[in-house]
């Protein structure tokens, strides 16, 4: 019989290996899936892992998709590390895009290039406002941030629909639900000719550095980490959990809003009902697969971008629905969570012969399992006193 | 008056979906497990139920397929959370994301399919009473089954030994373990039962409530159901009342449009989500009230001997 045993220390090696193992598991399941669907698995793997990197144009498209994922996931890393569960980044991204579009729509032929920083600032502000609602309700009324931030995604989608079907609809747009195409001057400057990569990529990479410095080299960032890992210790040390909540949500909201602004004034160039592309949700997976570490997130954002491009190619080349991307995203996160078990636990094989003795008290080598010693022996005993003391010992 | 009776009837119908899913989540949470994957389970179950009805023509088989799909996904979630000690929030989120992706992927070929003509239900005599008849007695049997589930659950949780054990596992798994109860197996059973109920709700949506299949058709009902358990402070009867209330809010938008209220439809569509937020705020503002009612081991992993 296999059982898990607490490691004396979390394994560093598995911290790095777990995402790779998770990817391997996802790929194996993907190959099986392709085979079951009657598609050539080799072709399937090519579409996901080779086509997106085989030419400089493909690489630049890979970066275009990776940029918003990277930016949003960086913010979420700060949030999740503070143990604040903002899962409404998609909504913050949308409101950021809407604020940015609001500024972009004011541009006309005479507008100068100063509009671009204004658009970006508006996007950040929009995301912060939307996340700020969640922070306010959590802070003032103790409302669960998971549910509030998620509900606000649905609200944000309706705000977008209202604008593009109503006041912001392009009067010359043949009644399509979209705004007019933004003026050329609002376009986020591109890095080079012939590719859609824009300065958003530079901002994202700067964000990697900024988040790293914030989390690991500043006092405020340290407070966030302590608050996330050990709330009681943070309280004792005088770190304000309210401040941590606001910092976490405003950072992640602002970053998501930034991504929305870069997207709507960059590759999209107008507001349409198709602005929500699920980046806010995919970024949650990006953040976890990247170990909530800014550098790790760079790699996982590129991987997730491959999934997106691979999904589109699978549709055109293999005749599979584009939503295969979502299947792989979900599988990857599942596999990652399962593999992460190996960081804190190791698997031990216990021969059946030894199991005759109560197996509950078996993994006692570690300090924290000490209280389990009486647990094994009193299992089945009906003494409330004993079970009460065991419970206290467990905490 | 006639339209009010219809509003009432449609609220009960809409509330039934939320109530069934929320009762499932209530069972999970009573055992100490939060499953954020409700939305994903409901989506997959909606597809499973719809596809089954398309192929067999039997709504009952559709419900069974939905429950099986929900229970299966819940078992995967439970395996990860209970045996591998993964974070409950992250794992539930993974289930929601996977369920959304998988149902969209597997359901592509069912998007244009139609279901066989639905039977109209009408309880003889009672259904003919003016006003009360259309409001209360012309529903799909599931609406009444749902009320039955509530009473069944109340009886199970508070009047049977098994229910007591389930609650003790949610309040203090260490004590339950020390008394010799198989905490993890009980939790898995609770998670699967909850998944089956979420699946039933999902299948009801796609086969009866809005008989069609489109990507993402659950539209946040799973998340609203999650909020409902908090709103109801983990009491089955309050879940049912809350669900009807939310059903009413959902349905109000169509009736407001019907009587010509001049508000953009998008703002009406927002209402259930805004109502969820408002309700969460109202119910959560008193932390003590929540702490007293909430199963105390909720969201915390339990690993015997660790």
Q: What do you see in this structure?
A:
The complex is a heterodimer of chains A (395) and B (306). By secondary structure, chain A is mainly alpha-helical. Chain A folds into two domains: 40-319, ABC transporter involved in vitamin B12 uptake, BtuC (Orthogonal Bundle); 350-394, no CATH class. Helices cover 66% and strands 3% of the residues of chain A. In chain A, strands 1-2 form a two-stranded antiparallel ribbon. Chain B is mainly α and 306 residues long. Chain B has a single domain, classed as ABC transporter involved in vitamin B12 uptake, BtuC. Chain B has 13 helices and no strands.
| Secondary structure tally, helices of chain A | 15
Structural class of chain A, by secondary structure, is mainly alpha
In the CATH scheme, the class of the largest domain in chain A would be Mainly Alpha
Q: Please state the average pLDDT score of chain B.
A: 91
Low-confidence stretches of chain A: 358-395
Please provide a brief summary of the model.
The complex is a heterodimer of chains A (395) and B (306). Chain A contains 15 helices and 2 strands.
Core attributes:
heterodimer; A: 395 residues; 2 domains; 3% strand; B: 306 residues; mainly alpha; ABC transporter involved in vitamin B12 uptake, BtuC; globular
Give the secondary structure arrangement, pairings included.
The complex is a heterodimer of chains A (395) and B (306).
Chain A lengths: L1 E5 L5 H25 L4 H9 L6 H26 L7 H16 L10 H27 L3 H21 L34 H18 L1 H11 L1 H6 L4 H28 L10 H11 L4 H25 L5 H21 E5 L22 H7 L5 H11 L1
Antiparallel strand pairs in A: 1-2
Helix pairs in contact in A: 1-2, 1-13, 2-12, 3-7, 3-10, 3-11, 3-12, 4-5, 4-6, 4-10, 4-11, 5-6, 5-10, 7-8, 7-12, 8-10, 11-12, 11-13, 12-13, 14-15
Chain B lengths: L1 H29 L7 H19 L2 H25 L4 H19 L25 H5 L4 H19 L1 H11 L1 H6 L4 H27 L11 H11 L4 H23 L6 H20 L2 H7 L13
């Amino acid at each position: 019989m296999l059982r898990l045993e607490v490691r004396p220390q979390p394994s560093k090696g598995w911290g790095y290996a777990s995402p790779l193992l998770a990817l391997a598991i996802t790929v194996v399941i993907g190959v099986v899936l392709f085979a079951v669907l009657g598609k050539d698995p080799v072709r399937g793997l090519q579409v996901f892992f080779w086509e997106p990197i085989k030419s400089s144009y493909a690489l630049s498209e890979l970066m275009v998709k990776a940029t918003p994922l990277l930016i949003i996931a960086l913010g979420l890393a700060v949030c999740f590390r503070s143990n604040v569960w903002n899962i409404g980044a998609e909504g913050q991204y949308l409101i950021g895009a809407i604020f940015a579009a609001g500024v972009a729509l004011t541009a006309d032929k005479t507008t100068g290039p100063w509009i671009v920083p204004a658009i970006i600032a508006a996007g950040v502000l929009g995301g912060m406002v939307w996340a700020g609602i969640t922070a306010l309700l959590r802070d003032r009324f103790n409302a669960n941030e998971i549910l509030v931030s998620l509900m606000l995604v649905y609200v944000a989608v309706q705000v977008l629909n209202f604008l593009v079907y109503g006041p912001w609809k392009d009067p010359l747009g043949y009644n399509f639900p979209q705004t007019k195409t933004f003026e050329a001057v609002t376009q986020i400057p591109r890095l080079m000719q012939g590719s859609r990569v824009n300065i958003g990529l530079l901002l994202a990479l700067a964000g990697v550095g900024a988040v790293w410095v914030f989390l690991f080299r500043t006092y405020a960032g340290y407070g966030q980490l302590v608050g996330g890992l050990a709330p009681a210790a943070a309280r004792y040390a005088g770190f304000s959990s309210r401040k941590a909540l606001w910092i976490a949500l405003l950072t992640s909201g602002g970053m998501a809003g930034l991504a929305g602004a870069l997207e709507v004034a960059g590759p999209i160039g107008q507001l349409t009902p198709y602005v929500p592309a699920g980046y806010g949700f995919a970024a949650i997976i990006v953040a976890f697969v990247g170990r909530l570490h800014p550098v790790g997130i760079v790699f996982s954002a590129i991987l997730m971008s491959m999934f997106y491009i691979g999904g589109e190619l699978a549709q055109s080349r293999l005749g599979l629905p584009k939503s295969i991307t979502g299947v792989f995203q979900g599988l990857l996160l599942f596999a990652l969570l399962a593999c992460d078990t190996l960081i804190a636990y190791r698997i031990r094989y216990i021969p059946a012969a030894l199991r005759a003795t109560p197996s509950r008290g078996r993994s006692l080598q570690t300090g924290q399992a000490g209280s389990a010693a009486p647990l094994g022996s009193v299992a089945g005993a009906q003494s409330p006193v004993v079970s009460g003391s065991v419970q206290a010992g467990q905490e | 008056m006639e339209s009010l009776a219809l509003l009432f009837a449609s609220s009960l119908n809409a509330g039934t979906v939320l109530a069934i899913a929320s009762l499932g989540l209530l069972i999970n949470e009573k055992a100490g497990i939060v499953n954020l994957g409700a939305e994903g389970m409901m989506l997959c179950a909606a597809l499973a139920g719809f596809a089954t009805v398309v192929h067999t023509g039997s709504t009952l088989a559709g419900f069974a397929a939905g429950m099986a799909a929900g229970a299966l996904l819940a078992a995967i979630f439970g395996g990860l959370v209970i045996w591998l000690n993964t974070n409950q929030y992250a794992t539930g989120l993974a289930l929601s994301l996977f369920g959304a992706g998988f149902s969209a992927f597997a359901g592509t070929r069912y998007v244009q399919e139609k279901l066989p003509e639905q039977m109209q239900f009408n309880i003889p005599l009672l259904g003919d009473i003016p006003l009360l008849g259309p409001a209360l007695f012309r529903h799909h049997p599931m609406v009444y089954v749902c009320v039955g589930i509530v009473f069944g659950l109340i009886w199970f949780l508070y009047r049977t030994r098994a229910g007591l054990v389930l609650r003790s596992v949610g309040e203090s798994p260490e004590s339950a373990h020390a008394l010799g109860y198989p905490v993890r197996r009980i939790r898995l059973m609770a998670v699967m039962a909850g998944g089956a109920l979420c699946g039933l709700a999902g299948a009801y949506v796609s086969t009866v409530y809005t008989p069609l299949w489109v990507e993402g058709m659950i539209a946040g009902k799973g998340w609203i159901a999650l909020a409902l358990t908090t709103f109801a402070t983990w009491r089955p009867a309050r879940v049912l009342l809350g669900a009807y209330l939310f059903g009413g809010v959902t349905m109000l938008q169509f009736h407001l449009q019907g009587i010509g209220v001049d508000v953009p439809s998008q703002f009406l569509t927002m209402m259930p989500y805004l109502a969820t937020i408002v309700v969460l705020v109202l119910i959560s503002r008193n932390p003590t009230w929540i702490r007293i009612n909430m199963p105390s081991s909720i969201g915390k992993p339990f690993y015997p001997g660790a």
